[in-house]
Each structure stands twice: as C-alpha cells, then as structure tokens.
Amino acid sequence: MGYKSIGRQLQLAREQAGYSQEQLAAKIGCSQSTLSNYEKGKRRIYLAQLAHIAEILGKPIEFFLSSSDFNSSGLYGSSGEKLNVPFTGVGTHCDVNIQSTTVSPDVRVALSMDEQKLLSDYQSLSPEGKRLIIDFVTWLKKREV
Amino acid sequence: MAVVNFNISSEQQLLLEEVNALACGWMAPAAEQSGEAGEKLFFDGLITSLAEHKLLTPTVPQHYGGRGLGYFSTALVLEELGALCTSVATVVTANIHAASPIILAGSTKQKETFLPPLACGKTHLAAFALTEPEAGSDITAIATKAYRKDNQWVINGVKEFVINGGLAHFTTLFATTDAKGKRASLVAIIIPKDINGLKIGAVYDKMGIEYVRTTKLILEDVSVPGELAIGPRGSAYLLLMQTFDRGRALAGAVGVGLARAAYEFALQYSKRRHQFGRPVFTQQAVSFALAELAAKIESARLMVWKACWLIDNDMDYTMASSMAKIAGSQVAQEATAMAMDICGGRGYLKDWPVEKYLRDARVLSLIEGTNNIQKAVIASLL
Known about the structure:
The complex is a heterodimer of chains A (about 140) and B (about 375). Chain A is mainly alpha-helical and about 140 residues long. Among the domains of chain A are: about 5-65, lambda repressor-like DNA-binding domains (434 Repressor (Amino-terminal Domain)), CATH 1.10.260.40; about 115-140, no CATH class. Chain A is built from eight helices and three strands, in the order αααααβββααα. Chain A has a three-stranded antiparallel sheet with strand order 2-1-3. In chain A, a hairpin with a 5-residue loop joins β1 and β2 (about 80-85). Chain B is about 50% helix and about 15% strand. In chain B, the strands form three sheets. In chain B, strands 2-3-7-6 form a four-stranded antiparallel sheet, with helices on one face. In chain B, strands 1-4-5 form a three-stranded mixed sheet. In chain B, β2 (about 145-150) and β3 form a beta hairpin. The interface of A and B includes residues 51, 93, 94 and 95 of A. Chain B: This is Butyryl-CoA dehydrogenase/acyl-CoA dehydrogenase. Chain B: Its cofactor is FAD. Chain B: One of its GO terms (molecular function) is acyl-CoA dehydrogenase activity.
C-alpha cells in the first residue's frame, strides 16, 4: 500500500533529527502511539499532518515518499540535465525536476567532511537561500564545461 | 459530552427536503416521456436543478461561493440521490472527487479559479482522471508522463473511465514525472477544458449508470502552466490516497440510497401483491428477507455516517471509509437482487425500475477502488 515505506522514512527522518517518538509526538500534537502507528504503516498519515512533520524535521515531502536512498537524489534542470548536487528543499513545485537515484549507504558515508558541511549548511538555509545555491551551482557547472 | 448523535439537524432535514423537492419538480415531466427518454429527462433536469442550488459539488467551501457541506451532510444528500437516480449521484460524486485535491491542497489561485464555477448556479462539471489501460489500483504503474518545459507541464498519455469526460470544466489528472512510476514522482495537475492536445476517445457503453458520460481521454503534448500542479512537490500520492479515502464513504452513501429505493419498492409490492388469498408480504420467506435487508441497510448507513463523521472531525477515517464503501455497495447489490426476486417476472421488465436498480448497483463494487482493494486497505491497517 506504500504507507509502510512512508513510515520507515518518517522514522529515519525523526532519528536523523534526534527526536524520540514522544518528543516528536508532543511537537506535532498527537499521541506517541499514533506516531508509532504512522511509522509502522498501521495508520495512514494525511497530507496536512505529513506537511507539518516535514516542516519540523526539515525534510521535503518527497523524502517520505521515496526509498531510503532519497538523500542521494540528483537534481535535474528544466532541460533535463542532471545536477550532481544532493537535494533537500521545501516541498513546493518549482522549475526543477527531482528524481531519486539508487546509491548505496556506503556512498553516503563516503562524503568528505567538506561535502557533509556543505550539505548541512544547505539544509539549514531558507527556501530562497536554497534556490540561490542551486542557481549558483548550475551557473558554475555551465562555466566549467 | 455526547460524542455521537444519531439525530440529524434541522438544517440537514431541510437539505433532504430541498433535494426531494428538486427531484419532484422533474418527476411529472419525466413520467410523460416513455422509457429511457423519461429517465434521461429526469437525469438532465435534476442535474440542472442541483447546479442551480449549488448541490452539484456541495463540498465547495462557502468562501468560494459553495454550500460548504461537510461529508456527513454530503452523505445525506448522496443517499437521497442514490435512491432517486444513481446516475445523478455518480456525477455529483465525480465532481466532489475532482474538487477534493484542490480543496485539500490547492493554492489560493487554484481555488479562486476552479472552485467558484462549480458553485455558480450553472451546470459546471469536473472530472477525475487516474485509471489507465495498464494502471488502476496500482498507482505505481501509471504511464501518463508529465515533464517540465520552460514554465509549463507537458503531459502525454491515455486515461480511461473518466466520468464527465469531455464535459468537464476542468479535469484533475494524475501523471508521473518518472518512467519508473515512483510514488514521489506522482503529480496532480489541473487540466482546463478545451486545451490543445486533449482529445476525447471512446465514449463507453455501460451496463448501468448509462446517463453518466464516461470516456477515454487522450493527451498528446497537452501543455498547461506550471502553477496548475496541485499541492507541494511530491505530495500527489498522499493527496490521491486521501481523496480516495474520503470519496469511498460517499460511494457507500450512494449504495445505501440505491438499496433503500429497491427495498422500499419491493416492500410496497409485497404488500400489494396477493397470492394464495393474502399479500405476499405475509409469507415468512418474504417478510424475513425484507426484515434482514432493512437491518443491513441501517447497518451500512451507520457505517457511512461514522466514516463521514470521522472525516468531518479530522480523525482517522481510512478504515471506516473502506468499510462503509464495502457495506454500501454490497447492500445495494443484495437489495436490488432481492427486489427482483420478490417482484418476480415483473421485476425483470424494462418498464419497472427494479432491473435498472440492479444494473446500476453492479458498478458500486467496482468504482472508487474495487471491494477487494478496500479489503486490502483494511487488512493493511489491522
């Protein structure tokens, strides 16, 4: 049905953000057992609730609808070219197509410190800031070709 | 505090009277026409009257000119329409279905553009396009592709079984941005009427609900502004599931209405028809069957009410909605089959309503996700 994998992603995002089930449940205004059922896929999470959780955990909604390797997603420009930039942004429709690619956890671990710092800084930016970064990287890539 | 109240409010009672008054206005003119011509006149007339009273899409919020009915009140309306004309009830359900993603997650501009026409007093229909030749219940198999070009969505694909196809003011369409059909790549896009590249394919000739125009839609490089995608990026799968979860309770309501109509017809006939010197109803085989049916209809109605109450109160409604859909569709099929048995040979005639009830009932276990899919949904939550 798809909700088990959404639940797994929800658990992953919660753990990455350092929340316990009780802490996140309190933050979103539901019981711990409800959150537990969301994570097990035993209760369907509705869009408004997921959007709220996504905002708290700093993940785009796509993260929860993708497999666990979403963190390795690539960005595609409107002309279809792939941009080799990890993406986590706000969940709004924009001119960039996002497609998940399958990358093993080992590859994620293999990110250098600089890359991890860059990714962490990017994730903490506002939507406008993230857009500027994407535009800048796109411009840099074209300049270096 | 009372959590459950089985009394409908005075406003809801007035709503039912309003719907019945609208139907009554078309009964006499329809009766003057013979057979299908009369049925078609009643269908067209009731659709027009419902539109005038903003009941064709009763869930459109008041802010956008609509009645703003909750799901409980909408279920009451749909039970009544299910009893009067299943085709009309199906059209209303399709309109609600198409508007639901916009109401749930549409932008202010989308709401301001597409909701008011559904409540303007004129017959504006909407359509919901999901099913494809190779994809129905399996959302991940969707092959209709959408890609971005400049600031447009370009869509190519084929959709099947689109209710109100070709008549709709707009179509809420689901496509994928990824050939692999991942859930995250699903996108919900509003397709305005009369847009280049949107072609009407086959108009289906159906066993029942024959006055509901149901077509194939073909999209060849249909290009719509990027702003017509509904909801946050990646949210379309959840939006679709939520639309289904809500719509299923309403399909159950239609089934309850149809079951009620068949049951009432059979009951009246059994009390009027005499065999062996007494009414057929006095035969225990008949009276017990009708008693059991009355209990099942009431049971299905309460399941629909519960599901709709949960929706209106923003509680977990998925399982209740699937159960209500199964109950409503099953009781409709049982009631219509039993009505034919009780009416005997006359029930099989075209100029009696029973055979139409039976044909109309059959679709209810197929639409809004088959009943087997409902069981899969329920099982996944056990």
